[in-house]
Amino acid sequence: MILDLAGFIETERVYWEELRATLDRLSLDSEARMTLEQVTRFHYLYQRCGADLARIGSLSTRPEVFDYLESLVARAYVELHDAPQRSRFSFWRFLAQGFPQAFRRNIRAFTLCLLITVVSAGLGAGALALDYDTKTVMMPFAHLNRTPQQRVREEESAKHDRLAGQHSTFSAQLMTHNIQVGVLTLALGMTWGLGTIVMLFYNGLTMGAVAFDYIHAGYTPFLLGWLLPHGVIEIPAIMVAGQAGLVLAHALIGWGDDTPRAARLRLVRADVFTLAGGFAVMLVWAGIIEAFFSQYHEPVLPYALKITFGLAELTLLTLYLARAGRR
Amino acid sequence: MTVERIASVTIETPEGVSFSYPLAGPVTRFAAWLIDALVIFTILSALSKVVSIIKPLTSGVGSAVGIIGYFVISIGYGMFLEWRWRGQTIGKRLLKIRVMDAEGLRLSFQQIAIRNLLRAVDSLPVLYAVGGVAVVVSRHAQRLGDMAAGTIVVRQSRSGLVIPETLRTGKYNSFAAWPHLVARVRQKAPLDLMAIAVNALERRDQFEPERRLELFADLAQKFREIAAFPDEASAFLTDEQYVRGLVDEMTRVRRR
User: Fold this and answer.
1) What ipTM was estimated for this complex?
2) Which residue in chain B has the smallest CA separation from A250?
3) How high is the pLDDT of residue B148?
4) Would you tell me how many other CB atoms lie within 10 Å of the CB of residue A155?
5) Checking CA distances to A155, which of A127, A252, B53, B141 falls within 20 to 30 Å?
6) Whether residue B168 has pLDDT greater than 70
7) Using a CB-CB distance cutoff of 8 angstroms, which residues of chain B are in contact with residue A61?
8) Residue A98 DSSP class
9) What per-residue confidence (pLDDT) applies to B3?
10) Of A24, A50, A80, which residue is a domain's last?
């Protein structure tokens, strides 16, 4: 026990104040870096204050001194035990290596998302085939509730560009809306994956119903020309969001894994972050293509060109995700 | 299943020093969020004004900038400020709370991004109901975003130390003439009695007068039972002066 507490404080507070001043300076700038000499001094102050905290810990008479020292030591601990110096974020490295590598590391989750989407699309198409009246339930969007004939006639006979001067706005709306859907799909992974599965299922159900509607009416080229250019990026992007959500869910549930939950979540954090960045980039691209390209139909743009463009994108995306960043 | 909630998180450093962070409660966090929501609303209102001015001049680009700006500010406000201000936003600064790594380490941008992205689920169905329930029932008062990101929200400890008046008066101390008795009290007095006496002296002005008299009478009696000082040392001293003089003298001994 420190009996001469007042003397102890008088002697030590100069070190405490020095450490506090250093910490305050560091807290003002997250990019601040210390020289070797400053780090050495900082470490000394941290150790000295840590020792003071240990000494004063047994003395319950001065809680405010204890709190103060504790906060200093805690703040200094954060600074000293920071993660190793990370290299600066490089968007190019993220695209060329980080994202495709994270995608492949979690390919099983993506496969499950693909399966859910395909099955739900099949169910959507099947439901419409059995009972066409379900269309209004499965496609609660006004522009999808017209008949394919009406839509194709309107689009192919348009005399002027409906989106003239509105491409940027439409593109921005698509990007932000789709990224919000992606983020929600990811975030719902924290509902043990149930919310993510529901989002993917609903997405697939609607897609299947729309596809059936147009194919059944004999407008397959229109459908492919309309959806492929942006859909081959947008739909996989939502599945990547689902992949991130399921990775999160798997870590949360931890089937057959004795590692503590916090440690499991920590292990997948980098991949979830990278996948989130990846699907956001994909959806920005899809938003641009949908606003500036997908909405133009024959005779302005031949369907063959649009379908070829879509297939080329799909091939490149597949190659990118399968091959990029391999060592 | 019941989860035992804790009021603070304790970290033990490799050097063997332990320290703890008091966890922020749901009400404080909600209040901080309300302030941040107000700040975001103000920024978005300003953005809306700017967009309405540039819109006629830029065709559709002005609206696109507005839509993207709205989106980036809504999602990026928390991320940007928590990154630049090491776990704080304006609301958190005002209410003196901070986001921290659950193991006491520095926050990484990944953690900040994930906890902010997962607001999408925490804010469901309205007003952060899911996140609020999670904060109330989780052991470390974490919303779902905090769990995924490995973060906690703590109350910020005081940043300054106010040293109260020291015990020493610099005046003549009658107990100084009886060092062997002072040494006996030092040796025999239980640690908790010393602690209570020092605490009581430092906070004596905060007590009700009657409680103050009772407390020091009680303490003085306890010290008298350990060692009886001659009348020359203690005559005409109130109980409080007795305790103060004795403790003052006892805490001086090591300095000599």
Assistant:
1) 0.86
2) B148
3) 97
4) 17
5) A127
6) no
7) 195-196, 198-199, 202
8) I
9) 57
10) A80
Q: Are B161 and A68 within 8 A, CB to CB?
A: yes
Helix H or strand E segment including B12: strand B8-12
Quote the domain boundaries for residue A307.
Answer: 91-323
Query: A223 lies in a domain?
Result: yes
Same-domain status, A33 and A150 = no
User: In terms of domains, do A145 and A261 share one?
Assistant: yes
Residue where the block lists tokens 């397959």: A220
Let me know whether A41 and A118 are in one domain: no
Nearest residue of chain B to residue A247 (CA atoms): B148
Interface test mutation site (partner B, options A43, A176, A188, max chain B beta carbons within 10 A):
A176
Left (φ > 0), alpha (ψ -120 to 50) or beta: where does B61 sit? alpha
Q: Each residue of A180-229: pLDDT tens digit?
A: 999 999 999 999 999 999 999 999 999 999 999 999 999 999 999 999 99
Does residue B13 register a pLDDT over 80? no
Q: Given CB atoms, is B71 within the 8 Å cutoff of chain A?
A: yes
A44 and A123 in a common domain: no
Q: How many domains does chain A have?
A: 2
DSSP, res A257: -
Same domain, yes or no, for A102 and A141? yes
At residue B187, φ and ψ (nearest 5 deg) are -70, -40
The pLDDT value recorded for residue B197 is 84
**Mean pLDDT value across residues A28-34:** 70
**Judged by CB atoms within 8 Å, which residues 73-132 of B form the interface with A?**
75, 83-86, 100-102, 104-106, 108-111, 113-114, 117-122
Last residue of a domain, one of A54, A80, A106: A80
- Burial (CB < 10 A; 0-12, 13-18, 19+), residue A255, is exposed
Structure tokens belonging to residue A234: 């947008």
A·B CB contacts under 8 A? 185
Asked if A70 and A128 sit in the same domain, the reply is: no
From the list A47, A180, A270, the residue facing B15 with the nearest CB is A47
Q: Is residue A166 part of a domain?
A: yes
How far is it, in rounded angstroms, from Cα B248 to Cα B241? 10
Cα R_g (chain B), whole angstroms: 29
Count each helix (H run) and each strand (E run) in chain B, helices first: 12, 4
**Is residue A277 domain-shared with residue A183, that is, in the same domain?**
yes
Distance CA A258, CA A251 (A): 11
Q: What pLDDT does residue A108 have? A: 97
Average pLDDT over every residue of A6-25: 84
What residue segments make up the domains of chain B, in order of their start?
8-155, 174-255
Whether A271 and A306 map to the same domain: the answer is yes
> How would residue A65 be classed by pLDDT, with cut points 50, 70 and 90?
confident
What does the pLDDT look like over A105-149, one tens digit per residue?
999 999 999 999 999 999 999 999 999 888 888 877 776 668 899
The reported pTM is 0.78
Distance in angstroms (rounded) separating the CA atoms of residues A48 and A43: 9
Number of neighbours of residue B93 by Cβ within 10 angstroms:
15
Report yes or no on A86 lying in a domain. no
